[in-house]
Design brief:
Elements lengths: L1 H19 L3 H22 L7 E4 L9 E4 L17 E3 L7 H5 L11 H7 L12 H12 L6 H14 L1 H10 L1 H8 L3 H7 L1 H4 L6 E4 L6 H4 L9 E5 L15 H15 L6 E7 L5 H5 L13 H18 L4 E4 L4 H11 L5 E3 H20 L12 E4 L3 H16 L4 H5 L2 E5 L2 E2 L13 H9 L10 H8 L3 E4 L9 H10 L4 E4 L11 H8 L4 E4 L6 E3 L2 E3 L1 E3 L6 H11 L6 H10 L6 H5 L10 H18 L8 H20 L9 E3 L9
Parallel strand pairs: 3-18, 4-6, 5-6, 5-7, 7-8, 9-10, 9-12, 12-13, 13-14, 14-17
Antiparallel strand pairs: 1-2, 10-11, 15-16
Helix pairs in contact: 1-2, 6-7, 6-8, 7-12, 9-12, 12-23, 16-17, 16-24, 20-21, 21-22, 23-26, 24-26, 26-27
Length: 662
């Protein structure tokens, strides 16, 4: 009984740590009590306290001990310490094989002997113990064998996530540069095309048109507290068109990157799909399509469904961040405007893309030896007048105004083209059509050229310094266009931003060939660097991964209920500041994806500071006080210490569950 009371006391302290979110100020309060409680009960319960090296005496006749190295002692990262936390099993989980079948708790060959006894799985796993690093090495060797395709890696990673979530995220964190294109674009696009046939295990939540009126109750079917939601209706998936319920692959992949890139707790993310049908005839004819086999709902009925979803989220998790993903052009901006002040939210296709493009332009200014204010000297041609293109144009326009131009002067620096050519004041823009309000001021400022002229004619007349593509038209930037950009500018800024790779306006090789490697190049999908005559053109990737993890983390930590343009601009300015001098000399305008956690720390801290400056903090002044006391460096330490890091934690049963053996 005494031992039982001690264990329950330890678990109560551990539960306080877990609920506190393991922030540094609360960890310093609770960790000593937690560890002391753990150590005081170790001998009476047969548990072992956390030490540098753990040795478990073997009762087997072979006369040797199983040795488990504590890799915590040698860790170089400064994220939240997992040894100061425990994995507390849900009360419904039984001892034995059920532990191994649950991907949240399963460690495969990573269970210690003490855990095997405690959890009732001794004999159910192989006897040899492997660290999480050793497990990662084995899986990585398999994934990187010669001949393995991107889809093989995607399916292998999904299978790993289905059986061992911690190991999945550890592998993703350790190899984020190689695996981000697998987990997300471009490979996830291929997976989404056949998602119904690849479906193995439910993940996330599906809210269909058949569920209207029940969204609020359905939210309670998800048992965990949620901090971040990614929701899509699958109507415009990565430039591949309407994929309906297959859009779930996008929501899942995006949240995996939130966890890996910003350390959001895996248990606090929720991928969602609003299934209102699809206009994709191939899917409607597919007997295995798992979404609603009906034409897509549109208009006011669709907007009412979105409204019901947002209200249900607010009722269940009022402080959660909602990221809108891959909504069609006619719905994306109206949804954002409708709910931006209603719930903590942002649209990654519109705002996230705009932020990363602006960050790239600031990086290009640095690569040319210019200050950020030199952005006011640039002339921009934007191909694509959809939600992404106009989001980019509007955000760059705001930056031009921020750096001293009048709004009208800033509008005059843009040439916007759609499928009909240049959009000018002579273009008939019908009132009420999607995107017209955003497009109109750009069109009205363009009175010097005929409406509808093609891209080549615009380049000849405008002599732009930056060519941006958000059209999803492969090959739009022809050799002739790129060559002319290279003749007009010493270092032309070429940004084919459309995803996936098959929809990019040009390749890195095409840009390098046409400009003799002098272009400052950035694409939405990954390309290899290109060398020409001893000159290497860096194939930068303007990946939204630089933005949304840190932006989301910072918004959550500061407790803001609104993501302002100022917070977005702060994120854009923070990204190029992570570049070192050598990278800038190579004309790299973005940091390496491998450094994404460091980038996310900088972005989150910048976003939080801006939120404090705008009086948007809702943490009782805690963040403002931290900034005044410790500056931005202290804020960055706080952000980093708040990040989840995938390590195996001691696994115990929930207090009072009666599942354990004492």
């Amino acid at each position: 009984m005494r031992a039982t009371r001690k264990l329950r006391g330890f678990l109560q302290v551990a539960n306080v740590v877990r609920k506190s979110g393991s922030r540094p100020n609360c960890m310093s309060d609770y960790t000593p009590a937690l560890i002391d409680s753990w150590r005081s009960t170790a001998s009476s319960l047969g548990f072992l306290a956390p030490t540098r090296t753990r040795e478990y005496a073997s009762s087997r006749p072979y006369g040797f001990a199983q040795r488990e190295t504590n890799y915590f002692a040698d860790r170089t990262h400064t994220c939240r310490f997992a040894e100061n936390d425990v994995m507390i099993m849900h009360a419904d989980t039984n001892r034995g094989i059920e532990v191994l079948l649950n991907p949240i708790y399963n460690k495969g060959t990573g269970f210690s002997l003490a855990e095997k006894e405690r959890l009732g799985i001794r004999g159910l796993t192989p006897p040899r113990y492997f660290t999480i690093e050793q497990q990662c090495e084995k899986i990585w060797a398999n994934l990187t064998e010669k001949g393995k395709t991107g889809m093989f890696r995607w399916r292998s990673m999904q299978a790993l996530q289905d059986r061992n979530e911690t190991l999945f995220y550890r592998l993703l964190v350790d190899h984020i540069e190689e695996l981000a294109p697998v987990i997300y674009t471009p490979t996830v696009g291929e997976a989404c095309l056949q998602y119904s046939r690849l479906f193995r295990r439910p993940r996330g939540m599906y809210f269909s048109a058949d569920d209207v009126g029940h969204f609020n109750a359905m939210m309670y079917n998800w048992k965990n507290d949620v901090s971040v939601i990614v929701v899509t209706d699958g109507s415009r998936v990565l430039g591949l068109g309407d994929l309906g319920a297959h859009g779930m692959g996008i929501s899942v992949g995006k949240l995996d990157l939130y966890v890996a890139g910003a350390g959001i707790e895996p248990s606090s993310v929720l991928p969602c799909v609003l299934d209102v049908g699809t206009d994709n005839e191939e899917l409607l004819a597919d007997p295995y399509y798992f979404g609603l086999p009906q034409k897509r709902i549109k208009g006011d009925t669709f907007m009412n469904i979105v409204d019901e979803f947002i209200q249900a989220v607010k009722n269940r998790w009022p402080k959660a961040l909602v990221q809108f993903e891959d909504f069609s052009t006619d719905h994306a901006m109206p949804i954002l405007k409708r709910h931006r002040e209603n719930v903590l939210c942002f649209n990654d296709d519109i705002q996230g893309t705009a932020v990363v493009v602006l960050a790239g332009i600031y990086g290009a200014m640095a690569a040319m030896g210019k200050s950020p204010g030199a952005i006011t000297e640039q002339i921009f041609v934007v191909c694509g007048a959809g939600s992404a293109g106009m989001g980019i144009a509007n955000f760059i326009h705001a930056a031009l105004v921020h750096h001293g131009l009048s709004p009208q002067q800033a509008f005059e620096r843009f040439y916007i083209l759609d499928k009909h050519g240049l959009i000018t004041s002579n273009r008939e823009l019908k009132e009420g059509e999607p995107g017209v309000d955003d497009l109109r001021p750009f069109a009205e400022s363009r009175r010097d050229l005929p409406d509808g002229i093609n891209l080549r004619e615009v380049i000849e007349s405008a002599k732009p310094t930056a060519l941006l593509g958000a059209s999803t038209v492969s090959g739009l930037f022809t050799h002739e266009i790129l060559t002319r950009m290279g003749k007009i500018n010493k270092n032309p800024i070429i940004m084919p931003l459309s995803n996936p790779t098959s929809r990019a306006e040009c390749t890195a090789e095409a840009a390098a060939n046409a400009t003799e490697g002098r272009a400052i190049f950035s694409a939405g999908s990954p390309f290899d660097d290109v060398s020409r005559d001893g000159v290497t053109m860096v194939a930068n990737q303007g990946n939204n991964l630089y933005v949304f993890p840190g932006l989301g983390l910072g918004s959550i930590l500061v407790g803001s209920n609104y993501i302002s343009d100022g917070m977005l601009n702060a994120a854009a300015e923070a990204i190029p500041k992570t570049l070192h001098d050598g990278a800038i000399r190579r004309r790299a305008i973005y940091p390496r994806i491998a450094d994404i956690r460091d980038v996310s720390v900088k972005v989150a801290a910048a976003v939080m500071k801006q939120a404090v400056d705008e009086d948007r903090e809702n943490r009782g002044g805690k963040i403002a006080h931290m900034i005044s006391r410790e500056g931005i460096e202290g804020l960055e330490r706080y952000v980093r210490s708040s990040m989840y890091y995938p390590e195996y934690r001691p696994t115990v049963f929930s207090p009072g569950s009666g599942r354990g053996t004492l």
